[in-house]
Amino acid sequence: MSLSPEITGAFPPPAIPLSPVISNLSFKLRPSSSVPSLLDVPHKLYVTSGRAAISLALEHAGIGSGDDVLVPAFHCESMISPVHWRKATPVFYQIRPDTQIDLEDIKQRHTDRCKAIIATHYFGFMQDFQPLRQWCDENGIVFIEDCAHAFFGKSGNLSAGQSGDYAIASSMKFFPIYDGGILTSSRHTLENIPLRKPSWSVDTKVALNTLERSISYKRLGVFGWLLQKGLLAKNLLWQYLKSTTNIETKGPSSSEGAYGLDEQWIHVATTRTSSKLLKHSDSDRIAHYRRRNYQILDAALGQLPGVRPLFSSLPENCVPLVYPLYIEQPERHFRQLKELGIPIWRFGEFLDPSVTEQEFPHSKELSRHIFQFPCHQELLNRELDWMIQNIQASLTNEPQGEPHGLESVPHQRVC
Ligand SMILES: Cc1ncc(COP(=O)(O)O)c(C=O)c1O
Question: Cβ(147)–Cβ(340) under 8 Å?
């Protein structure tokens, strides 16, 4: 199973949170949710990750050995491993330089063996999938709409998740939760998919990890400081329990930044902790701050020499996952920024080996040149300023700032 470079120790952990951490403002008793989202789709199943949701969609649709699944050439491993789990074969199709799917290429690659297609709304920017929807209906193809980057949003009249036979989300990317993916469908009830509940020990681990991540980034004020002392005692107790009992202490590796698929976590429900946190998260606040932070990053970075924003504007209903920036000389800046603790990553950095430069030049280019900078709702203004100053300095060759002063930060998900 492959791991992100932060986990293997190639780079220091991000100095500011790469994905949302809980703060005093994250939750409300009665949260507001006027933003269109995947939660508007009628049938839903709350699982451990986006890759588990893709696996369940393929299984529910009866995809298996001898079938082909059309998959974008610009992808991450966690979109491919569910296809292999079903013993089906991924067939890659072209993505255009602006991340739009190439329907003409899809039509050319389609054979009688093709039974399903995965199509992704990259970085939170929703695509118009109506022509694809129509083609799938005409050809009896199961359409899995990948909303891992687009939990919220609308394209035309359709909200995220309403175009596919199935849709999947990776709720961990948008909410400050440790585990979580969603499988939805407007066409199937999903009632016959069996899920087991995670054990109480895993639930406890999830609750503690969620707090620990937040405290390591100095959220939760005095309460957090007091909790930190308690968490030291918890680590000792946990070590003791692990060595003396056989309680389940490992959560899904998808929550720890691994790219592969843990088969034992496919038919498992989201933990009670993460379900509660998801239920009480304020979607309107998430949408507001993600859009605001995206616009701040765009104003500060979008015009610098040697770069250009991947998307020329932020559409009205878009809730971005990240701020994607095209960097002309990526190798020069990637290492430098990573070593400073800037939380950047490249989606699709490790494409399937069969995706070659010759056949899929656009996907290869996107995977090398697009840097993703976080714009999530839990970034503090001073963290945003620190990140911007260091990126500007790196891109304009000015002397670098000091690394951010955080001692020890738990691993974070990157894909
Ligand atoms: C586009 C896309 N689809 C699916 C997934 C799988 O989501 P998860 O990491 O929750 O398994 C990812 C993961 O990053 C992704 O980026």
Answer: no
Pocket test for ligand 1, best of 1, 69, 76, 182 (most atoms within 8 A of CB): 76
Integer angstrom CA distances of residue 363 from 94, 153, 283: 7, 24, 32
Average pLDDT over residues 316-339: 94
Q: Separation of 346 CA from ligand 1 center, angstroms?
A: 13
**pLDDT (tens digit per residue) in 95-134:** 999 999 999 999 999 999 999 999 999 999 999 999 999 9
pTM as predicted? 0.91
**Residue 303: Cβ-neighbour burial (10 angstroms; 0-12, 13-18, 19+):** exposed
Q: Is the same domain home to 161 and 61?
A: yes
Is position 369 within any domain?
yes
Residue 314 Cα to ligand 1 midpoint, Å, equals 22
Same domain flag for 152 and 177: yes
DSSP, res 46: E
The boundaries of the domain holding residue 148 are 38-185
